[in-house]
Amino acid sequence: MQGTVDGFSYGVVTPVVAYLMACLGGALGLRCTTRSLLVAHSWRPGWLALGSAAIGSGIWTMHFVAMMGFTVEEAPIHYDKPLTFASLAVAIVMVGIGIFIVGYRGATGTALFTGGTITGLGVATMHYLGMAGMRLRGTLEYNTLTVAASVVIAMVAATAALWAAGQVRGILWSLGASLVMGLAVSGMHYMGMAGLSVHLHGSGAAPPGDSPAEILAPMMIGPLAFLLLAGVIVMFDPLMVMGGQADVRNPANGNRSRQSYPVPRSGDRHVPARRRTRPRSRTRPGSRSPQNW
């Protein structure tokens, strides 16, 4: 028996909120990635880890907000907690690998291709692992071409977002990249759901696991609280909006590396790079001729 699938049982509310969650996580994560390029080497892992957790939490929250609107008319849906939590861990780890590659290698072609591919695969893996945690009286069946298209969308858009984050061109640039990443995650999700069909096994006892209201709402409190905390950190960091950077050539290997400088405050005088080595002429009191050099 074929089940009647509805992915928009709450109308446009769940898609819009899901997209905003993906954009929020993407914006915070990409700004942290940008910030990591402006700090000393010892601080870079912390910013990259914060960015990875923000993006992973954002896409995970987006997925399950969208799944709040997913129903099968003939069968109740329950969720398995271990697999649901595992999908969050997979998202953070795989996104983190991609971000660390770009954070340490820069926005080069090879690094972007590798990091974007891993990040996109992490988004897709999170999605289908979360779907595997669904419990209902039936079997989920996917269209192969639709699944492949959803994975390609995730990889291409993740690569584009990482490239934009690596340009370090200000907050508006990263916000635009986050919109692209939110669109990628949402597009990948709904593309994959478009190729889903449910084959029911007939009547029987309710499947094991917790209902969506019992598991999804409480579980999303943690990632949402983390996104709020990450947002506060980003908001109160002065170099997230404006910060100095310069390309400095390393005399050891001749490579260029970014180095950060503190942001000048209002009222500070500009300090010249080199002082005069030749003293200025001075005039003694009562003398009309300048003092000899």
UniProtKB/TrEMBL annotation:
It holds the Pfam family MHYT. Residues 272-285 have a biased composition (Basic residues). It comes from the Bacteria. Residues 247-293 are annotated as: Disordered. Keywords: Membrane, Transmembrane, Transmembrane helix. The keyword Transcription regulation does not apply. Residues 10-199 form the MHYT domain. InterPro entries: MHYT_dom. This is MHYT domain-containing protein. The lineage of its organism: Bacteria, Bacillati, Actinomycetota, Actinomycetes, Kitasatosporales.
